[in-house]
Target: FBX21 protein
Amino acid sequence: LTDLPGELLELILCCDVLGAADIGRVSCTCRRLREACQPRGKVWRERFRLRWPSLLKYYSHSDSVSWLEEYKARHNAGLEAQRIVASFSKRFFSEHVSPPLFVAVCSSPATCPIESLIKSLMESLRVENT
Model:
């Protein structure tokens, strides 16, 4: 790998088959591969894009972004959200969602479907909590 031209090496490392852990391991092998996987470079930007494609629009191309740090921050935020949801009381969850409720959640007007789902879930939690 180390004898390959930089552009070809970047293309290989940006392959969607490789995960963040793979990139981290590759970057620990030698200086040449560590430089190819630099935090502000194309490889970590591509990892970020593959994992969170809708978030890339919030970043300016002119900004000098440490994509490795952004990836870590988003990943850790996701883990924290999972921890919080896992800590919710079982009484906030139902094993069965009725079809009318499911249709209402999926068809309610919002700027994007995930916002609609979040609003509906938050409202359900408020109703259950009272």
